[in-house]
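Dear colleagues,

As part of the handover before I leave the project, I'm documenting each prediction I ran so the next person doesn't have to rerun anything. This entry is a single chain, and its sequence is reproduced below.
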Amino acid sequence: MLSQFARTKNALSMFMIDMDFFKRINDRYGHSKGDKVLIDFGRLLTECGRKSDLISRFGEEKFLILLPYSNLEKTMAF
């Protein structure tokens, strides 16, 4: 995807979300509850995005989001 956008010079925004203090959720409520928080948060990000957006978990409590065909205003609105 990245090479396609570089080749065609279409706009592509990318950002990462890191859930601060997520370890506290696992420590206090257990890993099964922590997993549910991650699943629910990923689902929420997907519901807020467009069909063309790519949202994926990028390890531990990080999420990587690619917004193709977006400009700065659309990215900030996400």
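Helices lie at 2-8, 22-29, 31-48, 72-77. Strands lie at 12-18, 54-57, 62-68.

All the best with the project,
I.
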